[in-house]
Amino acid sequence: MLLEQGLVDHIVVSNKSVAKIYVRNNTPCNQTDSEVVQETLPAQYKYYFDIGSVESFEEKIEEAQKALGIVDHEPSYYSQRLATLTPGFAGAEIANVCNEAALIAARGEQTQVTMQHFEAAIDRIIGGLEKKNRVISKLERRTVAYHESGHAIAGWFLEHAQPVLKYVPNESVVTTKEQLFDKTCVSLGGRAAEQVLVGRISTGAQSDLLKVTKMTYDQVAKYGFSEKVGMLSFPDSSEMSKPYSSMRAAIIDKEVREWVSKAYERTVELIEKHKEKVAEIAELLLEKVLYQEDLVHVLGERPFKPAEPTSYDRFKKGFQEEEEEKKEVEENPDDEDSTPLEPRVVEN
Fold first, then answer.
1. What is the percent of the chain with per-residue pLDDT over 90, rounded to a whole number?
2. What does DSSP say about strands 10-15 and 35-37: parallel, antiparallel, or unpaired?
3. Which residues form the AAA ATPase AAA+ lid domain (predicted)?
4. What is the CA 258 to chain-centroid distance, rounded?
5. What DSSP state is assigned to residue 198?
């Protein structure tokens, strides 16, 4: 990160071994380009930092930011967390996230870019602008809330499923039959919640049903999970060019219907068992975006511990590491030879 735009725009270099950063005395302006100047600076500059040599600029710039209070954490604090939230992002996309975070902070008249701004920026980049002008009735909002709550409950209480959270799920190279079955149940959790708690079903589950249909056909016709079809794998094909007979097609269709029905029955049983929790989560969703801490508060810890850390665990671990580093610094202060970088008042 650089110092706030418009706040620092002059770097004075006396020679290769002496360099200073001058900081504006007034509010940020439109002047954003750094300049190398030799003349005496006017009174609009309030502070300067002796950074030693030009080569140490990158190292000292972070200390200057902390001394001024422009940033509240080291860059590594953000990089560890943003790496979890932005898998597969190119450099330009990450730069776009940083720019969008700064804009969000500026709209809120904030002087610092925080983790909340970065998360909002990622939502903006991935999901687009929030549609605040869409008219939706209270009944529709409640139906959507219960639908999403059903997904969350199913993901929380199924052993081989991943919790439905705002964070990116773990990427898997191979997936087991049990994982796919639980994933099917999670996808059907919204429809089951509508049936059990709302009392009627809606079109909101269309995308879920498309996902379930493809996933189940793949298990039966591609992955060789069905005993009736056998260990065969058929490529995607149109109705006009199926690489199997109509009798085998009927067997595949029947297997898919039975598998989906079995998954839905299990999901309905799960929603019935935890319907009070479904309702509680739904009511909270009507008020705010929920994070894992909110789910833990309502549902308790997940009954199943993953064999490896999840993406959210890695995201959360960064905070824990930061706290541990802070404690180490407090317990082991710097040596006397190490002098912290402090702003000095410009004398005119």
1. 34
2. parallel
3. 81-120
4. 36
5. I
pLDDT value for 330: 58
Write down the catalytic residue from 148, 194, 308, 321: 148
In the annotation, is 148 catalytic?
A: yes
How would you classify the pairing of strands 344-345 and 10-15?
unpaired
How many CB atoms sit inside 10 A of residue 143's CB? 22
- Give pTM, 2 decimals: 0.65
Contact predicate 163/194, CB 8 Å: no
Placement of tokens 């920026």 in the chain:
121
Q: What is the pLDDT of residue 120?
A: 86
Task: Give strand ranges (E) for the chain.
Answer: 10-15, 18-24, 35-37, 45-52, 344-345
Q: What is the pLDDT of residues 270-313, one digit of tens each?
A: 999 999 999 999 999 998 878 778 888 999 988 887 777 666 66
Token pair, residue 39, equals 């003349």
